[in-house]
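# step 3/5: fold
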Amino acid sequence: MNSVYTKALDAICNKINKALLHPLDFEKVVDMFNRLLKAGSQVGNSDEIHGYLEKAGVDREIANEIQTIYEVLETSKKQLNYWDPAFIQSIIEEQ
């Protein structure tokens, strides 16, 4: 894993005390990953996040959650076109 994410994950672990117990903890993780992704920094493989966090003593379930947050944010930055625009418009118009 690159050093940017190593430093970021260390900061996250210190800020959230290795657990996502409060909504602000979740927001801190989202904010960190959003800023890194906006700056163009990505992890080669999101499994590296999970592995690094477990080695740092983060519970497996919490490591899974943090990895999932990264994956969702990374995916949301991509231009996705799974749904036909006409179908989406029809849903909006039904309101």
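# step 4/5: annotate
The longest helix spans residues 60-76.
# step 5/5: archive (pending)
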